[in-house]
Amino acid sequence: MITETEVLSDLIATIYDTTLDRGLWPDVLRRSAEFVGGAASWLYSKNVVRKTGNRALYWNPRFDVITVPRYFAEYVRIDPTRIGLVLFDVGQIYSVEDCMPHAEFLETRIYKEYVRPMGLVDQLAATLDRSAADLPLFAVFRSEEQGLADAEMRRRMSLVVPHVRRAVLIGNAMDRNATEATAFADTLGGLAAGVFLVDEDARIVFANRSGEIMLDQGKIFCQNHRALMAVDPRIGTTLPDIIASTRKGDAAVGVNGVALQLSRPPEPWLAHILPLTSGARRQAGIAHSAVAAVFVHQASLEAPSSMATMSKLYRLTPSELRVLAAMIEVGGIAAVAEVVGIAETTVKTHLQRLFSKTGTSRQSDLVKLVATHASPLRQLP
User: Fold this and answer.
1) Beta-bridge partners for 271
2) Over the stretch 184-219, which tens digit does the pLDDT of each residue have?
3) Distance CA 37, CA 326 (A)
């Protein structure tokens, strides 16, 4: 009988192989859903500023060429689970119940018109990155037969999310086209991100042009007897340890190398470490006598959304934040009640609490207050 460890190890290897071949993602999503205990899975992005979504990769017969575009066209703006982008940290796993009472979710328009017809009832999701306006998310959905997400599903989801996150971040830095492992160095050479192939002692065996420039500038990285070293002493010991751990396989890297912060704002630089000791990547590792590839790029200076700022500043509850967001988007108590899926009296109750917490007395004042907390870097819709 195949053990959970064996299934997970093989899944993780394929997750990282998507950095060489994006065509593997449908298989990864299928196997991830089966391992976690779901009926469907989805990898996509949402833009908090524009309140849109795109780049959907999915697995499940319930998601087809019609239902996926329909979500982005009609429902992404009123999806109550979108609040998870604001409430939860990167990599933190959340369900529908974590965003709103599930009984209220069953009364929403998106559930009645979109979720229920597909036979779905719950999800576990995680935001994978916040270094740009488009936030990538990974979600596994539960069917009505499977019931709501439980502790076992959360445990298994937590084993998969860090690796999906690393693969997505590295994949975003690489060419979108499928890449043969034998042409790995040629592909890396043309990337805007700095890339270093290193051996188990962190010695550089290859650096692309962007990486060479980083070494010449000496602001982020330097060499010490050919070993790749972070200039920031706080990172100096962490990086070699993560690289050394790649000898033990993909799972051994854990969450440490997902997004290693190399410097502080106003110029935050991040490193993502890809093991080259397993899967299809092993061929590239052997060819270059490397155990890992280190991808380095500068994070976007995207400021928090106005909703995120309001949530923290005024200590708004998830229910209050949902009502506030709906009021900004559709306006009017009746329209908010329909979108959020609650009674008009409940909307009024939340509205009074919002007035009390923010020191306002009218809906127009709330709208103005949200506008004052909008990011100065926000893009026009």
Assistant:
1) 260, 296
2) 666 676 677 788 999 989 999 999 888 999 999 998
3) 32
> Angle formed by the axes of helices 306-314 and 363-372, to 10°?
110
Which of the four CATH numbers 3.30.420.40, 3.10.450.50, 3.40.640.10, 1.10.10.10 does domain 306-372 have?
A: 1.10.10.10
| Residue 42: half-sphere exposure toward Cβ, Cα within 13 Å | 25
**Which residue type sits at 317?**
T
The CATH superfamily assigned to 4-173 is Transcription factor LuxR-like, autoinducer-binding domain (3.30.450.80)
Instruction: Please name the residue that has the structure tokens 């751990």.
Output: 245
Q: For residue 124, give the H/E element and its range.
A: strand 120-127
290 neighbors 206 (Cβ within 8 angstroms): yes
Tell the burial category of 5 from Cβ atoms under 10 Å away from its Cβ (0-12, 13-18, 19+): exposed
The domains of the chain are located at 4-173, 188-298, 306-372
For the stretch 120-161, pLDDT in tens is 999 999 988 876 667 789 999 999 999 999 999 999 999 999
User: Quick one: how far is CA 62 from the chain centroid?
Assistant: 23
pTM here is: 0.72
Tokens representing 202 are 């962190």
Task: List the structure tokens of 362.
Answer: 């009218």
Report the DSSP beta bridge partners of residue 120: 143
**Residue-wise pLDDT tens digits, 48-105:** 545 555 566 778 776 666 677 788 888 887 788 877 877 788 889 999 999 888 998 9
